[in-house]
Write a structure and sequence with these properties.
Layout lengths: L1 E9 L3 H10 L6 E5 L11 E5 H9 L10 E3 L1 E6 L5 E5 H4 L5 E5 H15 L3 E4 L1 E7 L4 E7 L2 E12 L10 E17 L6 E7 L2 E8 L2 E8 L1 H9 L2 H12 L6 E17 L3 E2 L2 E3 L5 E2 L7 H17 L9 H29 L4 H16 L1 H13 L4
Parallel strand pairs: 1-2, 1-11, 2-8, 5-13, 11-18
Antiparallel strand pairs: 3-7, 4-7, 5-6, 9-10, 10-11, 12-15, 12-16, 13-14, 14-15, 16-19, 17-18
């Protein structure tokens, strides 16, 4: 049996769920194909949501249902072994908080519950295996509990990076890995996030409840060694890498690591198909832009769908409009993140001096500081 939709979303993560919620009530046949039966609150990975993402989630009606968000009132940026530092403040940016730290499982669960209770989206359980872009519709083949099945749509929106190979990806291996853990220390964090650049990569500490969420970029070899250390050894290395600004680090729990690479789709719009979120770009965690960029992808795509005639959804003009609307924000976010990694992940003396001068100048020139803050909060169009 083949189901027909105006928009079929492939992917049940936060970006796919956000798109489904944004299209609910538009008078369209919307489907969502997701492989997993449910999201789990046990996924405690820390996610940094910008204030711009909060506004999107408020419009979708899910923000108030998410418990345990910790606001970031200030971001302190510095480099190890060099001068120069800058502080970004929510008051200066004119927002209640620069961002919010939340567990991935809490965010995914809130979006999933909103879809379950509100209706308006046909949710299909199945694993996508192939697709056929056509002139009038795209067809997706997937495996479900009934066996092999098919669904078609005027527009196929792929929000799952591992679901369908619909876009040619440009990949750059950074030769880095991210170590994550939850740590505590002597001093209260006072809702300040720290981004400290080291020769191996950035070391970020984000306020998460009473504790801190650690995202430590280093070499894969060092990452493996860190995760194999005793807690005391891990804390000693963290103290050495971060310094004493927060006093002594006391505990570290759940250390894990994963490799880092930049993955960018050469084109986000193909015949009857668009890619968004991780299917369009996977970014380095520095500055926390990846998921926020994906949520803006979803919101802009929903705006395009709602703003056109039903018969034109997924057509050539529609695809050109969506690609044009995302070009500046997407390109700016990718360039900003990649440039930070390239500029700060080394120990060259001349660049160390130049970085220090740049951070000092940024801290001393409020318009430039506010420009950077607003781009982190709202993207390149902020």
């Amino acid at each position: 049996m083949t189901a027909d939709f105006d928009v079929l979303i492939v992917g049940g993560g936060p970006v796919g769920a956000a798109l489904a919620l944004a299209l609910r009530g538009a008078g369209l046949a919307v489907g969502q194909l997701e492989a997993q039966a449910a999201h789990t609150l046990a996924d405690t990975r820390p996610i940094a949501l910008s204030h711009g993402s909060r506004l999107v989630l408020e419009r979708l009606g899910v923000w108030d249902g998410m418990a345990g968000t910790t606001p970031i009132q200030r971001i302190h940026i510095s480099q190890r072994g060099g001068f120069g530092r800058v502080g970004l403040d929510a008051c200066d940016a004119g927002v209640p908080a620069l961002g919010y730290v939340i567990e991935y499982g809490v965010l995914a669960d809130a979006l999933a519950r909103a879809l379950e209770t509100g209706g308006g989206v046909d949710r299909i359980r199945g694993s996508a295996s192939a697709f056929e872009p056509g002139t009038d519709r795209a067809v997706v083949q997937f495996a479900s509990s009934r066996g092999d099945d098919r669904a078609s749509a005027r527009l196929l929106a792929v929000a799952d990076g591992g679901a369908l190979p619909v876009a040619r990806m440009r990949i750059r291996d950074y030769g880095q890995a991210a170590v994550t853990a939850r740590v505590t220390c002597d001093a209260p964090h006072r809702n300040v996030a720290f981004e400290r650049f080291t020769p191996d990569g950035p070391l970020a500490l984000l306020p998460a409840g009473e504790a801190l969420a650690l995202v430590w970029t280093t070499t894969p070899e060092h990452a493996r060694k860190l995760c194999a250390m005793t807690e005391a050894e891990f804390l000693a290395r963290l103290q050495e890498g971060f310094g004493g600004r927060l006093g002594r680090f006391r505990t570290a729990s759940d250390p894990a690591w994963f490799p880092l690479a930049l993955k960018v789709a050469a084109r986000i719009a193909e015949p009857r198909t668009v890619v968004l979120g991780n299917a369009a770009q996977t970014l380095h965690p520095v500055a926390g832009q990846g998921l926020n960029l994906g949520l803006r992808d979803a919101w802009e795509l929903a705006e395009c769908v709602r703003g056109c005639d039903r018969a034109t959804i997924g057509g050539a003009d529609f695809l050109r409009e969506y690609a044009a609307r995302r070009r500046l924000d997407r390109g700016g976010g990718i360039f900003f993140t990649d440039s930070l990694v390239r500029l700060f992940s080394n120990d060259l003396a001349i660049l160390n001096f130049a970085r220090g001068c740049g951070l000092t100048a940024l801290g001393a020139f409020p318009p430039a500081r506010d420009f950077v803050a607003r781009r982190m909060i709202f993207g390149a169009r902020g």
